[in-house]
Amino acid sequence: MRQLTAAIAAGVFLTGLATATATVQDAPAVPAAEPAAPEVAKGDPAAFTAADRSPETLMAGLAQLVKTRAAYRAAPALTEGIVISVNSPMGEQKTMVDSQWGVNGAFDITVDGQMRMLAFGNTFYMLMPADETRYLSQEIADGDAMGVIAGATGGGGLPDPAIPFRLGKADVKAEEIPAMLGLGAMTNPKLAGFRSSATGMQALLEGEGGKAVVSMNSKTNLIDRIDLMVTPPGAPPEFKIEVAFTIKNELLKALKTPIAFDTTGKTKVDSPDGLGPQPLEAGAMAPDFELKTLEGETVKLSSLRGQVVVLDFWATWCGPCKRGLPVLNQVVQWANEADMPIKFYGVNVWEQGEVAAKLAVAKGFWDPQNFSFSSLIDEDDAVVAKYGVTGIPTSFIIGRDGKVEVVHQGFDPSMVEVMKEELKAAVAEKG
Fold it and tell me: Three-class SS of residue 361?
């Protein structure tokens, strides 16, 4: 599970837009259904007047932050749906966080439908919603659930204001509360302004690396929205990122279903890497499949037994894939000229939209390339999951006997000669 915990850490989802993986791109986040966002106006730091920044007003602002934190801690139960919209010079990105909060520090948090963390009693669990047969568990020592979450995410934590408010230490000074709302984007934020109206209150936070406006509901005192304006560490001053957290929360007397996780029949793993799809290794039997080419022809892997098969998983949005496919095409042309019993197929995966839209975007890229091999389309991404692929491009050389012989991850211009030798060896083996 490549870079899994980094992908969900609060600080990384902000700064990761400024960089790109040179040879392999990880699986994209699976879009989750967006919760209906409350009607809360975007916070603008420039709208805070001198009066909003006066010492007396800041005292009132700190008092409100105390009320907000107390509201989170006093709620017997709470649900949250958060849509995190990131806008930067690199484009737009959305992340969804859904959480449930029960009594005695119990919680259940899911990020983008890909990562789930929950705790009840004194035990923390981490798992993948798509495959809950494997789990990571850890005792919560001295009630430090926040420390456990930070450790599980590589130190970044998760972008949910309920986490520091409900799980943090009971006794804190009012001046310490703004630091709980930096969400990994700002260092040491301080309250710099406060204003209120009949519909809600807004607190302006300023820290190293950016500013934030926190909007709070006048009825519940809970946070409805956070607007961050930040420059990631190491980025030039002109590189600005705007992040909007729109939060739909609900106070409850009790959760409809108590937070629980049954480990019966499930496998405990030692690290987060053991939770995700497990990549196939050389010697494993290649999972059978039946897919269609971009032209509509059906291909069944098991019907190709006796021949060597090369599968290359790719996507139209994947830069390394686009650089790697022409390189693979050189290998295809070499094999065709030598009349070798080898079948080559691209496998298009992880495109967005309905099946027709996926097919259209794949054909729109593939057809003009005039490659010497065809591409299949994994319409529901079931095959890429079976093969345990977490980053693309990934290529598999499958021997005559149907077993995986070689796995290539990433783009490497030198792979032409390497793959030629590997294919010669695979063809020479008996099927």
Answer: helix
